[in-house]
Design a protein that fits this description.
The chain is an alpha+beta fold and about 120 residues long. It is about 25% helix and about 30% strand. The protein has one domain. The termini are far apart.
């Protein structure tokens, strides 16, 4: 690589490569959250399922806009079995984590409810 002096400078690492687009969700992604791995997979036009490794649906991500205010894609998330959008934002990882939390927290509440009633 040369600067305006005409002197060749060594290129270290991958400086000439564009940085990865950390905001754009590809066809398949893996997300580690709460000590488990989840798979985010494209299932339709701008729509991704969030599943545990055993295949349980944890939510659905969808693209709200390809370019938001900060020039990044905007995503929305729906919890399993719901039609309403729960959250929107540019960080698909946080949106997916929020949906996973909602499902796991509901499971914990259900387990606590059964435990409480079983003890009575």
């Amino acid at each position: 690589m040369s600067d305006n002096t005409g002197v060749e400078r060594p290129v270290h690492g991958h400086i000439t490569q564009a940085p990865p687009d950390i905001y754009r969700l590809g066809p398949v992604a893996r997300l580690e959250h709460r000590h488990a791995i989840y798979v985010v997979e494209l299932i339709g036009d701008d729509e991704w399922s969030i599943r545990s490794l055993d295949g349980r649906l944890m939510g659905t991500l969808f693209m709200v806009s390809p370019v938001g205010e900060e020039h990044e894609p905007v995503y929305g998330v729906r919890h399993p079995g719901e039609l309403a959008t729960e959250h929107q934002g540019t960080d698909w990882r946080s949106l997916a984590a929020a949906s996973i939390n909602a499902v796991l927290d509901a499971d914990e509440d259900e387990n606590m409810s059964h435990t409480f009633h079983d003890d009575a």
